[in-house]
Target: Gamma-glutamyl phosphate reductase
Amino acid sequence: MTLTEMGKAAKQAAAVLAQAGPKKDMALRAIAKTLEDHQEKLLAANAADLAAAEKAGMRPALLDRLRLTPERITGMAKGVREVAAQEDPIGQVIEGGVRPNGLEIRRVRVPIGVIGIIFEARPNVAADAAALCLKAGNAVLLRGGKEAIESNRACVELMRAAVASAGLPQDSIQLVQDTSRASAAEMMGLTGYLDVLIPRGGRGLIQSVVENARVPVIQTGAGNCHVYVDESADIAMAADIIDNAKTSRPSVCNAIETILIHRNIAEKALPVIGARLLKKKVELRGCAVTREILGNCVVPATEADWDTEYDDLILAVKVVDSMEDALRHIAQYSTGHSECIVTRSYENARRFQQEVDSAAVYVNASTRFTDGGEFGLGAEIGISTQKLHARGPMGVRQLTSSKFLVLGSGQVR
Amino acid sequence: MTLTEMGKAAKQAAAVLAQAGPKKDMALRAIAKTLEDHQEKLLAANAADLAAAEKAGMRPALLDRLRLTPERITGMAKGVREVAAQEDPIGQVIEGGVRPNGLEIRRVRVPIGVIGIIFEARPNVAADAAALCLKAGNAVLLRGGKEAIESNRACVELMRAAVASAGLPQDSIQLVQDTSRASAAEMMGLTGYLDVLIPRGGRGLIQSVVENARVPVIQTGAGNCHVYVDESADIAMAADIIDNAKTSRPSVCNAIETILIHRNIAEKALPVIGARLLKKKVELRGCAVTREILGNCVVPATEADWDTEYDDLILAVKVVDSMEDALRHIAQYSTGHSECIVTRSYENARRFQQEVDSAAVYVNASTRFTDGGEFGLGAEIGISTQKLHARGPMGVRQLTSSKFLVLGSGQVR
Model:
């Protein structure tokens, strides 16, 4: 099947899904059940992927991402059931009223249509993403990394059968079997069929999609996040937040990469914060002032460090002369994901939230909360760092569009 | 100044505009006043454009679009004042609450940042678009057609001075002086500076931007709109609606291009509708059945007619066997702008609104109402026919984004 044929089939499926109502939840529950019932099939397919990846010399961290276990499959099924339990966004009236000429106007939520997801070698993404798309009434074209192809095939095959068992078109969920670069490029140009393309993965993947796609893209997951420790900060609180934001899960996009510390508190705060991080084996890369205070346990930072998402136990540290300096640094280097100020100053808290131009701006809390579940929005397909359509955690509601319904009695203009 | 330099200046201006509050309305009122006070300057610049265009053999209809008159300038000023009078969307709380861990979360409306507008030889667009962008706290890069360059220069110069007089950066509004194709292409690739690009103009311009832009685009104005006359329609009402939707302003995007008529009502309805349109000098292009009923006053329609936005006094006419046929035709040929069913059937009215996938779906009213003002949304920058970010009339609110503000007391995850 060519991608265009897949796009056509998806468009037809999407027209059915748009009217499917509670059948979508039946399909989601059937998906959860079949993933659990056919664990062995999924594990066998995954074993083949793992064997090939090991043979090809894949790094242990990536092998771990690729691995399915009975627990992880249970987790996938649980995630799908949670999506099924959420409220159906489709048909919700967003706004409306009656115009002076008697026209009744409602803006209602409708599906986007066909969503493309390009992801890397994480087989759980297939189920997570398909569930969210389906809930919002969208058909989905999944294209995973070649390393996970057997796992994805098994998973999508099971999901398609489950969708069909609920009386919905199995082409609601399709897997692009060709994992070559050419197929990714073709997908990025599938105008007329793909309403939006969402890349899920590392910076390279996202950059390549943003640079090359002709279909609309939602950019997710680039997170060069900052904590700014203000002059008036509670130092123990700052240390707690920085520790949590850096070390609780360093590989995720809401982890921080740089801390900025006001000069007037640096001599007191840095030793506390530094000791905490060094104990957790975080490599510190600091500016000259940081190194004066903390000494040789800090690697000298270069310009590149301010611009790097380590996604690892490394943290850049910079002492700033003022809040303005901190704001300027963030404006220059942030990817617009999540930033935090630790402060006791009402004025600085307000100003930081007003001026920092990121999807989530915190006062006195860890950036790790930038997450659909933590924000009370339900499961998410990613954290949008762009400003159009969706910004921040993208849940089911961000996978919808709207249309205007107008009821008249012969009005003309 | 290079486009990159303009982009940098715009970004800096945008940071100021994001915090500008009521100063934005002062700037807008100053713009309205200066356009009125310097009418002579605008008319002189426009006269130069008109002379050059006439010499180059521009068609009368396009010359008329290019022309400024005292009345049109007054209209521009009035439009800008209306935008100033609207509610400021920035800072509005969209949703929010307190999480179980005590985090207070608010999603608030913020500007998008820097908006690019590429438009054709209509000098009023510069003021209209700049006013809407400014109201929503965005800086704007305007790039008009080369035929209107003198008019746009004069207008933007006046607007920049007015913005400065209100204490805001004059680079909030900038005109791209280079009107070559190369500058348009450069603008489409200005990632990092342009947050969104909105083409305003004909199908060719929009298509070129959608195909080539690497910055996010909002597609506006493609309108292949339909009226479907159902079996149970009130024929007089159908004739009124079709007449209005075709002839009241044929060149705009919410005018209709094709009517579909149920076979069971065609023999009665077509003569009434046809007579009405022929009297208004509308050329009818019909299917075989239409020509059987109306005879040789109807030009035979070809496949291309179903796909054409005439933007002129031409209407394609097709007799369909059923509502399903009508829905299929619309799904195949519509650009997703506005469609209408004329019917007395409750069931068909509901089904049509549910199944037609367009920005505005009408029962028993003219498609000409698809307009920001008519919908009660205020002045609009265009009608979005895409599904991401904005769909339908795009007013000030659709020129905004949002961010999450989170207040904590040391929460970690």
Summary: The first helix of chain A runs from residue 3 to 17. Chain A has a mean pLDDT of 95. The two ends of chain A are 48 Å apart (CA to CA). Residues 3-220+381-407 of chain A form a domain with the Aldehyde Dehydrogenase; Chain A, domain 1 fold (CATH 3.40.605.10).
